Amino acid sequence: MKRWLLLLLLAGCSSAGKDDESPASVEAEMTAPGLTARPDRFEAVLEAVGRPAWKERVTRIQFTWHHIGKGLKRSYEWDLLADQVTATAGEKTETFPSGGPGELHASFVNDSYWFLFELMAAEDGSLKRTLGPVQADGFRGKLPEMLTVDVRYPENEGYTGGDRYILYLDAQNLPRAWSFHKGGTWEPTLVTTREKHVRAHGVALPTEFRTADGAVFIRIENVRINGEALP
Fold first, then answer.
1. Fewer CB within 10 Å, N side or C side of the chain?
2. Dihedral sign, CA of 197, 198, 199, 203?
3. Is the pTM of this model over 0.85?
């Protein structure tokens, strides 16, 4: 699949952060005392979510992306062997290659990256580096302090170049929360949990995303892997 960047803004997020923050100041914060770089950590994340099984055993995946607040739903069937996606949004259904083009391709990128972020990020050229244990903004006391992996995308590529995403990992290297940083700012634009993983055919995929107040923001529904319906 071509390198396409995440489109969390399609979920209704607005920019909130240090938009005037310079790259130099961001890098200074990233390398502050107590933060360490371990480029191998993302490989451990991929093991936790089952990327080897994804590449070897998963041939077809179906799901519905549901924005709870907006009542918006879009459904997809992705044939990985044929590299074809059939997307349905409202009354419109369209089939296109996973790399596009297509009228619903941008929606597919956004929605599949919510569900399959680690697997998608493994295929692109984004910068991935490990930071020290930190607390997810807004979740103090609700989530343990966790090791984090910072995923940053190049500017001027894909739909939303320059954005960054931080994964908050548990002791088994499975992401339990993440933050979206529009334009690469250090202050997050949105932070949610990554919960209720479905596990089948060797992969572990999140199906519920909650904000700090406990409200469900995004839910992944009607999941099928290789034709098997999952709870």
1. C
2. negative
3. no
